[in-house]
C-alpha cells in the first residue's frame, strides 16, 4: 500500500511539474529572443539618421565604427557596396529593398535584422544588425536547469510525504488487522490504540467497543452458568440430608457416592465457567470487571417487585426442615412494614438460599443460625448470621470465586450482584452469635404492591418442597 501511494504521488506530481515547467521554459526562451530582437532593432534605428544625412561610404564607415564595436552592424548601399561585416544573403537584402519592410531571418551563427532606409531619388539602403546565437539563448540553459532541479525536488518531496502519510495509514491498518486476528483466535484482552486518519480512528474505536461488548457477553454467559450451577446446590443439599436420614440401608452408599459425584460435577462446571473470565479490568479493590457485568445482568432482570420479608420467610421455612434434621436452632424475624425490592422472586430466593446454604455447608451440625429482614428509610436489610467459626477474611470473601472454605466462593457473589443491581451493598461482619454475619442491603422499590400470584407461588413451592422431603 505504501508503494502504491508513493507511485501515485510520483505520477501525479510529475504530471503537474511537466504541465507547468515545459510551457514556462518555452516562454522563457521566447522572452530572451524577444529581448535580443528589441536590442537589435534599437541599434539599427540608431544608424538610420546617419544614413539619411550622408550616404558616402567614408562617412558611413566612421558611423559604423562608432556605433558598432563588435562587428554586428552593416550597411548595404544602393550601388551594391557594403559598409561593415555583412552576414545575410543577397536574396534577403533584395526582399527588404523590394518590400521596403523590415526583414528578419536566421543566418549562419545567429539571427539577422534588416531595416530598409529610403534615400533620395527613390533609392533604398538596408541596415543589417546581426545577433549571435549566444545572445538568443543567454541564461536559458541555466534557468532550465534550475527549474528542472526544482521539479525533481518537488517530486521527491511529494513522494516522501506520501510515503510518511501512507506509513501512518498502513501502521494503523496493520494494528487493527493484528488485533482482529488476535480477537478471532480468542484473546479477549486485545485492544487497539485508535490512530491514523479519521476513518481508521473511528474503526479502532468501533473495534474496541465490539471487543468490550463481546467480553461482556461472554462474561455474562459464564457467570450465568456458574450462578445457575450454584443454585443447584440447594436441592443437592436437601438431597444429601435426606440421604443421611435414610441410614445404613441397602443402596445408601451408592446414593451418597452419586450425590458426592454430582457435587463434584457442579464444582467442575462452576470452575470451568469462571476460569476463562478476563481479569483485564481490575479495579482498585482487586475485583474483576466480570463483577460489574454480573451486576448489570442482575439489574436487567430486576424489573419486577417482590416482598423481601415474605419471600425470606418462605425460604427459611424450607431450610428450617433441614435444620431440624441436623439439630440446628433456626430463628426468623421480619418487620411488619412492606419490604418491596426491585428484584425477581427467583433472584431474591437465590440470595437467601446461597447465604443459608453456606451456613449448612461451612458450619458443623447443631450450629444455630438466624435470619432477619428489616426496613430502613431507603433499603431493606436481609441479615443471615450463625454461631459457627465465622469468616477469617471478610474482605477477601466478597471477591468473586474466592473462598477459604473449599467451595467455589460464589454464594456471596450472588448476594452482592443482587444488592448492587438495586444500588445496595453487602457487608460481612462478626455476629453476636459468635460466627459470621452477612448483611445484604437491597434498595427499597418505589412500588410496594404485592401480587396474589407471587404469594400463591411461594405457598405452592413451600408445600411441594415439604412433600418432597417427607417422601
Entry summary:
The protein has 471 residues and is α+β, with helices and mostly antiparallel strands. The chain has helices at residues 2-53, 57-67, 90-99, 133-136, 140-184, 198-231, 233-246, 252-274, 289-300, 308-326, 345-362, 394-397, 411-421, 452-470; strands at residues 73-76, 82-84, 103-107, 110-118, 124-132, 306-307, 330-334, 340-341, 369-375, 379-386, 425-430, 436-443.
> Which structural class best describes the helix and strand composition?
alpha+beta
- Helical element count? 14
Globular, elongated, flat, extended or rod-shaped: what is the shape? rod-shaped
How do the strands of the widest beta sheet line up side by side? 2-1-5-4-3
How many strands, which pairing sense, and closed or not: the largest β-sheet?
A: 5 strands, antiparallel
Distance between the termini: 76 Å
* CATH A-level architecture of the largest domain: 2-Layer Sandwich
Q: Spell the H/E element sequence.
A: HHEEHEEEHHHHHHEHEEHEEHHEEH
> What quaternary form is this?
single chain
Share of helix, binned: 55-70%
Total of domains: 2
Radius of gyration: 53 Å
Low-confidence stretches: 276-302, 448-460
Amino acid at each position: 500500500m505504501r508503494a502504491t501511494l508513493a507511485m501515485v504521488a510520483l505520477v501525479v506530481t510529475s504530471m503537474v511539474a511537466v504541465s507547468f515547467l515545459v510551457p514556462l521554459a518555452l516562454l522563457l526562451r521566447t522572452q530572451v529572443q524577444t529581448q535580443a530582437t528589441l536590442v537589435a532593432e534599437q541599434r539599427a534605428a540608431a544608424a538610420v539618421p546617419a544614413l539619411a544625412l550622408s550616404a558616402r561610404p567614408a562617412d558611413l564607415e566612421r558611423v559604423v565604427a562608432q556605433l558598432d564595436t563588435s562587428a554586428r552592424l552593416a550597411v548595404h548601399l544602393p550601388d551594391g557596396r557594403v559598409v561593415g561585416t555583412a552576414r545575410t544573403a543577397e536574396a534577403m537584402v533584395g526582399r527588404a529593398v523590394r518590400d521596403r519592410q523590415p526583414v528578419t531571418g536566421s543566418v549562419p551563427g545567429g539571427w539577422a535584422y534588416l531595416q530598409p532606409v529610403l534615400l533620395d531619388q527613390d533609392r533604398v539602403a538596408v541596415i543589417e544588425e546581426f545577433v549571435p546565437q549566444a545572445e538568443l539563448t543567454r541564461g536559458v540553459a541555466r534557468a532550465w536547469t534550475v527549474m528542472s532541479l526544482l521539479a525533481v525536488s518537488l517530486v521527491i518531496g511529494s513522494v516522501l510525504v506520501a510515503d510518511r502519510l501512507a506509513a501512518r495509514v498502513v501502521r494503523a491498518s496493520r494494528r487493527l488487522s493484528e488485533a482482529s486476528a488476535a480477537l478471532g483466535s480468542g484473546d479477549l484482552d486485545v485492544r487497539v490504540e485508535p490512530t491514523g486518519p479519521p476513518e481508521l480512528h473511528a474503526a479502532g474505536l468501533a473495534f474496541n467497543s465490539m471487543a468490550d461488548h463481546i467480553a461482556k457477553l461472554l462474561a455474562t454467559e459464564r457467570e450465568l452458568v456458574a450462578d445457575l450451577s450454584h443454585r443447584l446446590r440447594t436441592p443437592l443439599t436437601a438431597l444429601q440430608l435426606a440421604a443421611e436420614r435414610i441410614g445404613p440401608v441397602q443402596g445408601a452408599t451408592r446414593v451418597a457416592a452419586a450425590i458426592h459425584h454430582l457435587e463434584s460435577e457442579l464444582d467442575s462446571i462452576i470452575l470451568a465457567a469462571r476460569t476463562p473470565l478476563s481479569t483485564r479490568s481490575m479495579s482498585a479493590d482487586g475485583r474483576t470487571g466480570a463483577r460489574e457485568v454480573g451486576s448489570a445482568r442482575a439489574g436487567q432482570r430486576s424489573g419486577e417487585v417482590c416482598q423481601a420479608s415474605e419471600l425470606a420467610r418462605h425460604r427459611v421455612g424450607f431450610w428450617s426442615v433441614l435444620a431440624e434434621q441436623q439439630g440446628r436452632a433456626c430463628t426468623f424475624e421480619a418487620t411488619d412494614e412492606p419490604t418491596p425490592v426491585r428484584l425477581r422472586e427467583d433472584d431474591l430466593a437465590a440470595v437467601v438460599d446461597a447465604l443459608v446454604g453456606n451456613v449448612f455447608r461451612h458450619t458443623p451440625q447443631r450450629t444455630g443460625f438466624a435470619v432477619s429482614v428489616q426496613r430502613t428509610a431507603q433499603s431493606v436489610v436481609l441479615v443471615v448470621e450463625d454461631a459457627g467459626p465465622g469468616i477469617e477474611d471478610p474482605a477477601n470473601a466478597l471477591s468473586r470465586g474466592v473462598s477459604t472454605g473449599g467451595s467455589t466462593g460464589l454464594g456471596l457473589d450472588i448476594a452482592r450482584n443482587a444488592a448492587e443491581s438495586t444500588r445496595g451493598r453487602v457487608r460481612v461482619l462478626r455476629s453476636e452469635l459468635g460466627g459470621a454475619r452477612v448483611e445484604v442491603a437491597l434498595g427499597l422499590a418505589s412500588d410496594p404492591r404485592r401480587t396474589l400470584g407471587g404469594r400463591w407461588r411461594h405457598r405452592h413451592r413451600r408445600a411441594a418442597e415439604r412433600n418432597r422431603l417427607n417422601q
